[in-house]
Amino acid sequence: MTLGKFSGSALFRVSVLAVSYTTVLFVCRWLAFQLRFDFSVPPEFQPALRLYWAWALPVKLVFLLVFGQFSGLLSYFSIPDLKRLVAATGCGSAAIFVVYYLGDVKYASPRGVLLVDFLLSTMGLACVRLALRMARERFAETSGGDGGHRRRVAIVGAGDVGANLGRELLLRHGLGRTPVAFFDDDKGLWRSRVHGIPVVGPPESLRDHNLNLQLEEVIIAMPSAPAKRIGEIVRVLQAAHLRFTTVPSVDQLASGRVRVSQLRSVEIQDLLGRTQVELETENIKQLLRDRVVMVTGAGGSIGSELCRQISTFDPQRLLLVEQSEVQMFQIEQEMIERGAGGTIVTTIADILDDRRMSYLFRKYQPAVVFHAAAHKHVPLMESQPSEAIKNNILGSAHLATLARDHHVDRFVLISTDKAINPTNVMGASKRVAELYVQALQASDHNRTRFMAVRFGNVLGSSGSVVPIFRKQIAAGGPVRVTHPEATRYFMTIPEAVGLVLQTAALGEGGEIFILDMGKPIRIVDLARQLIELSGLRPDQDIEIQYTGLRPGEKLFEELSHAREDVAPTAHPKIMRLLAAPMPVATVQAHLDVLRGAADTAEPDQLKALLRNAVPEYTPYLT
Predict the structure, then answer these.
(1) What pLDDT is recorded for position 437?
(2) CATH class for domain 374-460+488-519+562-613?
């Protein structure tokens, strides 16, 4: 059985530590006397040495127990553990000093012995814990290795993250990698050493064959570096034909969910050129903590990330509403694994089901509702506008009305940049939903703050372009792009959701928020980067084909309507759009017409009705 398995047993752990601590304290006390008297203890101090074992040693052991030195796992020892250890030995020595010199003990130890004993005991106990940790790291994890061979790797980035990674690779043989060199942009680090590993020079020097490092892999350990710089380093590594991976993101490292040694492939979001978004988490915490929060579409890409992030703000209850049982099961299991099983309530429900949704609002009385349930696939909704109308418009209106009737504090509609001067059914349906929540905000006797949030494409969401391109690359191509000049705004899912939570805290009611999505990216450039990240060459290994814009698609997306005024907010990545709301009766009349025609009218007829509700909509008619 390995040390790691033994150390999980409480009885074994306490026994080993008790024996180890007692032995170390005994030896250190004896050695302190010997050092104080040059290894010739006078007879008059012999009683003080012998009486120590009767009461002073138990006192020290009690303080070690009080400061938790018997509860830590044997093979884990870090700076916080060391601080507690120093506090325990210091308090123990101080207690002995007080008893000796204020209690008028007959055989008191010299003060020099007490000081030396404290220093030796602290060092000795720390060495015991450190030895156990090193034993675990050097031997217990070798069973997880690859049978002995350890790949020679270089680490790009000699900062804190790179240094921590280098230390873990040196100590944890089971990771199967040996760091042989660091590379960093900081000239001040060149020709120095980190954990004994040389910092050779800038990442560009990896192309120098004279280095003769015989590298098998390069690890990029620069999680906070600009994406542009990451892209430059990736191109250097591709030109040098070196295999490369990267460390987890800053968010993951900061949250403690992953270790720096849990490497992953470089993803397209690493090359997008976006800076890390800073959230004002205190405002979000005040909004969500100890409150009931509802998320519709909880199993989707946006909804599931909303659940993940909301759960970290300690809501009283998190109500997950999802129509698909498969998606609900997946997010439920993930939330349970994250320790939120006691907070979540999973409900399979259709937002169009009036009796079911009314029951949920009555029973749980949510204070905040994030409405992410929607049909979002542009080509599918273009051919089936009835479903977009029912789910995106009528479902959203039904949910918003329930929120108003049950006096929900805040209702956040997840919208899209495709709702701006829409050319497709999906965008037009989202625009009608925006108009309805704005109208409800201005209606009489309303106590709910209604708001909407628009953002562009999210990387990796179901049906988005990135997984489609990856599938085409895996099949050997071709990668199909609609138009060489087509551009889109892209965000990562965690970034988009974090800003959605921020807007919920900022909103006063009636606003439509737009998120700073950076610069638009050409779809063909995205395709090329994905091909290169796969270790292939665009137009050589993988062909890129242009298929033409699909019905309802634009060359580029816009940020606001002409009738909307753009205003800044307290957060630099969020802007507020203000426009005069339509009377709720006017919007309701359009909804009544759409409801009556949704199941019987032809697609082009429904698009015409949508245009009546959204004059700026330019439909694609067959």
Answers:
(1) 96
(2) alpha beta
CATH of the domain spanning 151-267, picked from 3.50.50.60, 3.90.850.10, 3.40.50.720, 3.40.50.300: 3.40.50.720
Amino acid present at 52: Y
Q: 41-55, 477-491, 564-578: which has the highest mean pLDDT?
A: 477-491
The letter for the amino acid at 468 is I
Task: Give the count of beta carbons closer than 10 Å to the beta carbon of residue 512.
Answer: 26
Give phi and psi for 154, each to the nearest 5. -110, 150
Q: Where in the chain is the domain with CATH 3.40.50.720?
A: 151-267, 374-460+488-519+562-613
The residues, any chain, with a CB within 8 Å of residue 491's CB and separated by 6 or more, are 274, 455, 456, 457, 458, 459, 515, 517, 518
pTM: 0.68
Return d(Cα 272, Cα 518) in angstroms, integer.
Answer: 9
The residue-averaged pLDDT of 13-40 equals 80
Mean per-residue pLDDT of the chain = 83
Better pLDDT: 316 or 35 = 316
What lies within 8 Å, CB to CB, of 266 at 6+ separation is 220, 230, 234, 244, 245, 246, 533
Please say if the pLDDT value at position 616 is more than 60: yes
